[in-house]
Amino acid sequence: MVYVLDINGQPLMPTTRHGKVRRLLNSHLAKVVKRCPFTIQLLYQSTKEIQPVSLGVDAGSKHIGMAATTEKKVVYQEELSPRNDVVKLLSARRTLRRTRRNRKTRYRKPRFNNRVHSKHKGWLAPSVEVKIQEHITAIKRICQILPISDIHVETAEFDLQRLKAMEEGRPLPVGTDYQLGEQYDFYNTRQYVLHRDEYTCQCCGTHDNNVKLHVHHIESRQTGGDAPNNLIILCEHCHKALHEGKLELPKGKKRGKSYRDATFMGVMRKTLLERLKKEIDVPVEGTYGYITKYWRERAGLEKSHINDAICISKHPYARPLETYYLTKAVRHHNRQIHKTKFSKGGIRKRNQAPYLVKGFRLFDKVLYQGKSYFIFGRRITGYFDIRTLDGTKVNKGSTSYKKLRIQDTAEAYLTEVRAIPHMNEFTCVLA
Question: How many domains does the chain have?
């Protein structure tokens, strides 16, 4: 599928007539705008004959499915993996900030209005904000190459208390049970965890009033947070021995199921729809998961992010493509290192390869033995770690620059074409 823009940069209907595209390029009547997805721009005036194209978006925290369809066929399908490293980066920034403040002895009283919640109404956590922005950016990128007439977004809504009750085997909440959660009547989480573990060390079984009890994070606070299923009661001696590596937690003492992704979707669903309606000049509608499931089962499609997006676009019987675009969002610029200064006006030495090595950069798309890969690591000697987007290494992560040829320079979104493992059986009549 080749995507076409007119002389003014406005999207036209895509084409599969590769021969005509080749002749237009050879005769200089068109130019290549983008390689993946392959997009050309006409250099002459043309009639703008377009069809209604619906865009379905299967919103998610880890994977975003998108499909643009007409009544008869799918013209674009993509699976995007948004960034999930923001929490880790913020934790590193917090550590640097705390160490910096500990080096300064002067105390300054906090200002009355220097908190982000008070300055910016509607503020969201950066880990949620980046996912909303990537949804909007991905939709805008598709609108630049296709004449989208309407957008349909499925934002899942999860009942967290019901999910927790099902996992723990408790009765399902009904009515006022939603107001009486597991931490009801406890003034903080620590008190609830102490009561839950019966004021007993979960390692040695100490139940002595003279022994100080600590609340231990099973997984790090950065990964697991302060949720009760990530906390456990240990005595002072066991807690110290555990952190020194002299002791291990008993078997079975593991963190419970994480509901971070469900929480993400619950927070971002309303904001995502509101921002899309403001920033995109195309009608935007929301839909629900049970409607998507109904049409997917009726059309006989397998469960996947792309198939869900096809059903969300209101054209579940559109003929799917044989390939799809796999996209991964990466951190394009790393400014965190430059902020770590050992003295005023100085920059800490970085034990890493230069920005450019033999003309190649990190995340450049390169051609090796007729196939496309991405640079995920580089050495100053000119050897590179090239991989596919799913992380598969080539030559055990060591390939000379002499065998590589650059295709595209590094971008914030890495895209490669993937073949669908097995095509869905197309049904032309309604079930």
Answer: 3
Residue 37 belongs to some domain of the structure: yes
Per-residue 3-state assignment (H helix, E strand, C coil) for 279-308:
HCCCCEEEECHHHHHHHHHHHCCCCCHHHH
User: Rounded to two decimals, what is the model's pTM?
Assistant: 0.80
Q: In what order do the strands lie in the sheet with 365-368?
A: 399-400, 383-387, 371-378, 365-368, 405-408
Burial 356-366 (b: 16+ CB within 10 A, else e): ebeebebbbbb
Residue at 348: amino acid letter: R
Mark whether 70 and 150 lie in a shared domain: yes
Q: Which domain covers residue 182, as residue numbers? A: 161-258
| Residue-wise pLDDT tens digits, 292-336 | 989 999 999 999 999 999 999 999 999 989 999 999 998 876 655
Please give the Cα distance from 216 to 230 (Å, whole number). 8
Do residue 79 and residue 148 come from a single domain?
Answer: yes
Give the strand pairing for 413-419 and 323-329: antiparallel
The size of the chain, in residues, is 431
Residue 280 lies in a domain: yes
| Rounded Cα distance, 29 and 11, in Å | 16
Angle at alpha carbon of residue 162, lines to 156 and 166, rounded to 5°: 115
Say if residue 179 is in the same domain as residue 191.
Answer: yes
Assess whether 152 and 227 both reside in one domain. Answer: no
Residue 67 CB burial class (10 angstroms; 0-12, 13-18, ≥19): buried
Of 230, 258, 286, the domain-final residue: 258
How far is 64 from 309, CA to CA, in rounded Å? 9
d(CA 78, CA 69): 12
87-128, pLDDT tens digit by residue? 888 887 787 777 777 776 666 676 766 666 666 677 888 888
CATH number of the domain within which 314 lies: 3.30.420.10
